[in-house]
Every structure is written in structure tokens, then in C-alpha cells.
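## Example pair
The file below holds two records. Each record gives the amino-acid sequence first, followed by its C-alpha cell line.
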Amino acid sequence: MDINQMTRRQFEALPHREWDKIIIFDSLIILPARVNHWSLVQYSIRKTLARFLKMKEPDVWEVGHLHDSGFRCMDFVAVLDDEPICLLSGCSDVIHIDGISGFGYQWLERYGTAPRAIPPSAWRIDCLAQSGLLRIWSTRGKMTCDLPLSSFEIYALGRNDIPVPISY
């Protein structure tokens, strides 16, 4: 199905990848979690009352799809040749492009230490017509990602990069 014609609900209905499966894709669609606004209002009221009554404040995770940081969680749709493959995360509130450090895929194995210079990788974002969701891709071509954790890391793969099994 053409990703530009898909609805948000169609993206949400995709299966999640296995937690530790390596996946290669050429673009990524950012899928913000839906938040129940009534739950958010209740949380705000309970938080205000807890401060006023000097009680323990409620945890933000009690509001569905909000991260412990208080930011909304995101899921990501892996896309290959304009075909959606699967959902990748669901629990992340941050996306790190080319890793948390920004040094690229397997930078420690490649450089041995923090590099002084890294090859440039141009990133692009557009907005899908039907769903209004954002799609991100690298001009290098293929991409991969790490485990679905609190922070989600994506990497542009170079021509010679071979994704290795994820270790945990």
C-alpha cells in the first residue's frame, strides 16, 4: 500500500517487530502516541491536589502513552521501498539521529574513540499527504535502528556497513 495514502489507523495496525530483531529500512514514519486527554486532566488535578495536601505526587506513567519524562511517547514505522514493514518502538520519547552521540553506526568499533570528524549524512523530513505524519530518511540510503528503549536510535548505513545482531 502507498504510504502517502495510508491513514494513521492503518499505520497503527501494523505488527511490532520482535524486540531484538535487526531491521533494515529506507525511511521511518514518526507515529506520536494518542493520549487520552481526560486522563491528562485527571492527572493534572491529582498532581495539584498532592502539592496542596503535601502528599506524594502521582506518576506521569499513569496517563497512558506518556513517558516518565512527561513527554508523549512515539512509535516508528519502518518503510522499505515505500511499503510499511512494521512498528519499531512505542516506548520512546526521544529519537536520536545517528545515535545518542551523533557519531553514526557502530562508531566505537569504527573509530576506537570519539572521532574528530565524521562523514556527513544528510537527513530529510517530509509530511505524508493522507495521515499528516512525518517521514524521515537519510540520503545515504538504508537505515537501521537499535533496541526499542526509552530513547530510540536510528542510523544511516554506509555502503560497507553490515548490521550486526543486537546484544543485550
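Second record, same layout:
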Amino acid sequence: MTVRIRPLSGGDLREILAIERQVFPDDLWTLETGKGWLARSPLGGQARNAVRLARLIRLIRLIRLSETLQLIRLTRFAILRRPATRYFIVAEAGGAIAGYACLNAVARGKGDVQTIAVRPECEGKGIGTAMLADLIAAAAARECREIFLDVRADNDRARLLYRRTGFAETARRPGFYQPSGADAIVMRLQIPRLPAESGRERQDAHGG
């Protein structure tokens, strides 16, 4: 199967939310965490926008709160391409969106794989591997030193993929995923330094 990785576009939002509903049935968000996100976000930090966003969340009662917040984040990125540290991609296979992923990476800092999801019927076809490789390449291009991610302790397929890619398990977050109560495993990948980068750092250390 040919897999095409490309940036997120506004027309992808409906499909992405449908995939999220399939892959992540547990709702990590509660009303209180949603209010906290609104207060901290650039949009919610403005009183006028905070009121509008809170009203939107109350109105969309048929959609889980996490999906509403995800829709707000995705729409903001698709339209404004903000925040600039975010890197959203989708994977197309057979002419349809088969998965999506998001990396949050600060230049010369660390990367955080915030989500990576593949349609259940498309699993085992190399789509997750292709998206993960693209995220790692994007983090390396931003000169990140390391990448972190959280994965469910009971998601053996995902944990195996990450270990094969070079991630190591570093910590456990008990009861992180609700309402199931599943633990989260924190995994880390150290990105090798490129020869040119190492040479530049040695030159800087000797005063140019």
C-alpha cells in the first residue's frame, strides 16, 4: 500500500475527528480541565474569545469535550498555522485519510509526540511507522535533542512500534487515561547529532 504523508488542511478536520473517536474512546478531558485549557490558551486568554469558546463547548453537547477542544486546536492551526511549534500531518492510503499525527517541537529543544492515530482497519500496513518517521525527521530538522511521548500501558502494538524505532520507556503515569484507569508509559528517543552540527558546536566552543 502506498502511503502519502502531507500537512494537515482544513478539509481534513471531519475525518480526523472520526478517527479520534475510533482510536481514543476514553475521554481524558473533563469540564474542569477544559476550563483550565481555555484560561491558558492564547484564544481563551482574551475575555471575549473565552466566552465564545465556552459557549461553543456548552452548545455542542453531542460531541465529547475532548473532541470539541481538538476541533478548536485543529481549526486554529489549519487557518492560522499557530502555534508555530506544532506540526500536524495526515497519512493518505488508497485515496483516503488513514491516520494523523501531531508533534510539538521547539527549535533546539525537545519534541513531544502529542498524538498519532491510525484507523483500526488500516493498522499493520506501515502507516503508523511512516508517520512516526516523518515526525522524527521534523524534530531533527528543528534540531531537537530528544522526543517524548505517552502511550497506554495496554497498547502493546504501539509500544512495540516505538521500541523498534528506538524509544525507551522512562516512566509510568498511574491511572492517566480515564475513565478506564489505564496507566501511561512515558517513552523517550534521543536524536543523534548530525556531523555538521557537532562540528559547528566545536567551532563555537573555540570562539569561532
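Notes on the second record: The chain has seven helices and seven strands. The beta strands are 3-7, 86-93, 96-105, 110-118, 146-152, 168-177, 182-190.
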